[in-house]
Amino acid sequence: MVHVGTIYNTVPFFFLLIGVINGFVINSENKLDEDFIIPHYTHYEELQQLFNLLVLKYPNLAKVISIGKSVEGRDLLVLEISENVKERKLCEPMVKYVANMHGDEAVGRELLVYLAQYLLNNYGKDERVTKLVNNTDIYLMPSMNPDGFEKSVEGNCNSKGDFSGRENANHVDLNRNFPDQFYKRTNYLQKGGSILDGRQNETVAMMTWIATEPFVLSGNLHGGAVVASYPYDSGSALPCCVESKSPDDELFKYLAHTYADNHPQMRTGNACSHDVFQGGVINGAYWYEVIGGMQDFNYARSNAFEITFELSCCKYPTASNMPKYWRLNKESLIKYLEQAHIGVKGLVRDTNGEPIEAATIIVHGINHNVSTTHRGEYWRLLLPGTYNIHAEAWGYHPSEQINVTVISGEPSIVNFTLTQDTYNDQALL
Asked: Which Gene3D superfamilies match (predicted)?
């Protein structure tokens, strides 16, 4: 498991007294909702300070972690928000938002800064927020590319000609730097090498985090268009206009529409003059093929379902626009987090009640499986309907097939007990 312990344990006392630092606000009164929404971009040092203040104010609800370092040595900061960040409840789903992997696409970065404060400031005051935080382990990463952001220029609607800012400090596009399930390039895996070899610091940190934490749902926030793009991004073998469908195509469309339908501009499909997207969603490869993208990596290499959200026609609009972007995206951001609670979840145990790690959950008719955690937990996002499901694990007899009905808005609980396969045990002696 990746060590992502709490960092930045101290902060100057006067920060607590004034509650306002370089343009961001920590409410000291019991005001509801959005007093913190101000026209300002939070840069790296400010982000460190803000996250620390939130942890100090909400020590049971918030924890700041670093999943690694950028090329220039900046921490890849994440704020965890949950009812009890000291210990995740059994079967509580983990969800993440990652923004700013292209450093010059800044709207998503600031939206996650707003979202963190919104969830924490309104916990215990707003019923919906309280329910979400009580039942979901939420991770917010405002910037996967902090080096690129610091090189970018506010007000620039397009990337620079040399792509500085968009790319990381080594001039690599991080959203082309992941292993691709369809294209096995010779430099991806050398004989005897690691899947991590030759990749950027930021990519290695993200791959390791994804592989070692049981995320159920994920959102990747970008800019330059207004649309929800769903997997696959690659596999069409053409520059555009041919779909590359995943086994969970209908589920991904639903997740994309969850965001788009609740976004007043995205759902129109024509928020930007140069693009038209039916219903505000599109298959990634149909739009344009991306080889080595993070969205496909999540689905192909972990249990997580990720959608890419393009949030603004202008990549780095002036800060005066940020309150507007919050209003446009607030409902979508929250509604999407709530989708971690659809489908089926449960535990896989042996006949002694002990958890079985790395058991496989198989939904018949959908060629995409999920696996259990070391605590025997699993989550399988599914649309409403009736499914046949079973569990299997090495050294155990497969479970019986269970017919389960999934309803809208809440998970169905299905637990499995597997019996040890004594024949296989003897064969190993």
From this structure: Carboxypeptidase-like, regulatory domain, Zn peptidases
The Cα 175–Cα 233 span in angstroms is 11
Output the six-digit token pair for 235. 């596999």
**Lowest-confidence region among 138-142, 188-192, 368-372:** 188-192
| Span 225-276, pLDDT tens digits | 999 999 999 988 888 899 999 999 999 999 999 999 999 999 999 999 888 9
Is the four-CA dihedral 274, 279, 282, 286 of positive or negative sign? negative
The DSSP output letter for 279 is G
Confidence bin at 188 (pLDDT 50/70/90): very low
Report, as residue numbers or ranges, the catalytic residues: 310
- Residue located via tokens 């989550």: 379
Query: HSE (CB half, 13 Å, CA atoms) of 402?
Result: 19
227 conformational bin, left if phi > 0, alpha if psi -120 to 50, beta if neither: beta
For the record, the structure tokens of 358 come out as 């790395």
Residue of 230, 244, 226, 219 whose CA lies nearest to 340: 219
Q: What is the pTM of this model?
A: 0.91
Q: What are phi and psi of 110, to 5 degrees?
A: -70, -30
Structure token pair of residue 38: 């101000």
Q: pLDDT-derived band of residue 164, with 50, 70 and 90 as boundaries? A: confident
3 Cβ partners below 8 Å, 6+ apart?
none
Residue located via tokens 């060629």: 367
Which structure tokens are listed for 165? 């800012």
